[in-house]
Give the backbone structure.
Amino acid sequence: MSPVSRGRKPKKTKKNKKQATKPKVPLTSEPVSFPDWFEEGVGNILGGVDGLLACETARDLEQATCELLGAELKRAIDDDNYGLDFDLFFAALVAEVSALAKSEPTEALWRLLHGLLAIAAPGVAPTLRSTIARVESESERLSAWPRSLADLKATGEVWEMRDVYGTRLAVIAAYTYPGVYLFDVDMSGIPALTGGHVYDDVEQATEAWRKKLGDEAGDAEPKAVTDTERLAGLVSCEFDVIGFESRDALDNWHRAQRRFEDLETALKKRNLPLPPYQSLFDDPDPAEMSRPFIEWHSERHGGEPDPEAVEDLAGEWMEGLVPDTRFDVSPGRIGYYLDVLGDRRDPVAMALLRKWACWLAERAGLPSPLVERVVAKATK
């Protein structure tokens, strides 16, 4: 998964995007100035920490911790805050929780420490581990079962499947808590995590994903990954704060990144490394798509479209997309392209887009009802 702001071109920037403001100094430097919303966010999480006492399993504890954080990330966005640096917020939370646990250790804080450790990035994990060790040495009658989250690892087993359009990716990976984690990635535009969840097994994860997508899941079946290029959409996931993230995505904001790092480590040990991150804005060749479209247009409509207009469409279309999905089309992808067009939606461009959508839908062999959804989106 990519760091924030990977050289995105200005014309791709969506309106009202709430940019994360990354500090130029390491988190260990002193002093660090925190955005105003941090204090309230940390306070709200600590105010809800007693809710963790209802958890009975490590998986429950991890999920409850994710939801505590996700609620505050959602509030920070909804309240139009700036300085939406969620990594820095996590580090600030860890510092506060660690200080409290050392001075006044409680069962609730003990559980929160382990819940945070399960989803923590490598940079803050040492602080959590040292705090846990100190609290454990100085306190008695703390629950033993949260400790299973301290050594959570990926096994290296991983499966993937895509929806009927080809622009939605499900990656299912096995971990050492019993169960698997599902990464749900939208590849309609720049790849983005739309959600994630822990399930008992691959079958349960598959059923949940299909139910979520409905008929757009098609006959997708999970396939064991032997070529990690199939996971390029996951590798390219952007964790920029746009401002329209779902609650599910925010609950999994930190967990998904941690699970990805765990998976990457496990696959390296299996000599099956993930493909390196590559910018999706490295000027793809428009001719790759414009030439076959012009041929189709000539056969279907009896004449060539404006070559320059087609080249512009192809160039705009291809940028930001995972390369092996460029010929895939979906309502979500049409919506992404319309956002790229912005106020340039003149009648000529829209007419060409409708033909472009028909061409790609026919090329993919989509069922008629799904073709109609794609064309309808391009007609708006």
User: Anything to note?
Assistant: Confidence is low (pLDDT under 50) at residues 3-29. The chain has three domains: 34-150, 154-269, 287-318+329-379. The first strand starts at residue 154 and ends at 162.
